[in-house]
Design a protein that fits this description.
Layout (H helix, E strand, L loop, with lengths): L2 E5 L4 E5 L7 E6 L5 E6 L5 E6 L2 E9 L4 E7 L6 E4 L3 E5 L3 E6 L5 E6 L10 E2 L7 E5 L5 E7 L4 E9 L3 E6 L5 E6 L4 E6 L5 E6 L8 E6 L5 E6 L3 E6 L14 H12 L5 H7 L6 E4 L7 E8 L2 E8 L3 E6 L6 E2 L1 E7 L6 H5 L11 H6 L49
Parallel strand pairs: 23-27
Antiparallel strand pairs: 1-2, 2-3, 4-5, 5-6, 6-7, 8-9, 9-10, 10-11, 12-13, 13-14, 14-15, 16-17, 17-18, 18-19, 20-21, 21-22, 22-23, 24-25, 25-26, 26-28
Family: Belongs to the WD repeat PROPPIN family.
Protein name: WIPI1 protein
Main location: membrane
Amino acid sequence: CSSLAIGTTTGYRLFSLSSVEQLDQVHESNEIPDVYIVERLFSSSLVVVVSHAKPQQMNVYHFKKGTEICNYSYSSNILSIRLNRQRLVVCLEESIYIHNIKDMKLLKTILDTPPNTTGLCALSINHANSYLAYPGSATSGEIALYDGNTLKTACAIPAHDGPLAALAFNSTGSKLASASEKGTVIRVFSIPGGQKLYEFRRGMKRYVNISSLVFSMDSQFLCASSNTETVHIFKLEHLTDSRPEEPPTWSGYMGKMFQAATNYLPAQVSGMMNQDRAFATVRLNISGQRNICALSTIQKLPRLLVTTSDGHLYIYNLDPQDGGECVLIKKHSLLGSGKMEENKENDLRPPLPQSYAATVARQSTVPSTSTMPGYSEDGGALRGEVIPEHEFATGPVCLDDENEFPPVSI
């Protein structure tokens, strides 16, 4: 949650989210039009791009050097891509490809997955727990959990009655949140065991399309946004008796009475009583647009970020103690001219080429992808073929240095 990547009809843009008042554009590329997937590896220079012009091809770039690291093509349209420090996952409608991010070697192909028309999948950002979650059924809300490190199936979690709509891991890969197409209930499970830890009710009046589920980095909050105007933030409180005794109030007494009563009620009824409502909410001034949310700390304060498909970023303050209605403090346009020119005079580093084409024009010593072994145009995966073992990069993916990766949290 430290940077923002957007795809546009003309290319893609990368922004830094270090400030509330100013939105810094880190990079802009207009080499590939109609970009609908752009995934950056944390704050590094590695970015993965997929365009509507070639929806079956994944291009991996080192944008600071302006070079293309490799490209692979697959048997059908790429629906989503997920990456962490160890793995790069490509999700098609009925198959999933797992690559080793250090050399782009194909490690595993999961074939014949249930039809997944939206490319729904989640990958833990903690590479020590490289768990992958995707729909295990097209008709029910079963989650297939796969261990991306050992390349083995971990378990199946019967999360919902209806088909899945959203999945998200927390930062350590120890929790997984899910929502179904109904969008009324959000559940959180332990990983890798799959035990249900929390259940939150988003609403009962209407079904909604949940487009974004995200944990805060400390796993204390879970945010859900949908095609409605309301964004919900839930608090994951520890269900222990270590908290100080509450003062004797009528509501406290009734709460304890209900909690005790759940021990004697059928599971379906007690589950309903244990559902918590939102700790904090946001009411957007738009409805019906797809949006993506993030919970981040910017300038030492907790913020809720909402990016909408019309090209705007909204930043809200979140009160971590009392919750309630979040206050809008800044709105940015993502489709303006950007800050690239203004920031150049403050940048003491030598200028770097901004695109692959610019690098070629400068007669870079880096050989083109068409001549590098393992970097063929079709990647060995056209016509439904599995990429052969020899079809991978000959050398490691070299970023500037290890500082481009975020610190490893143990």
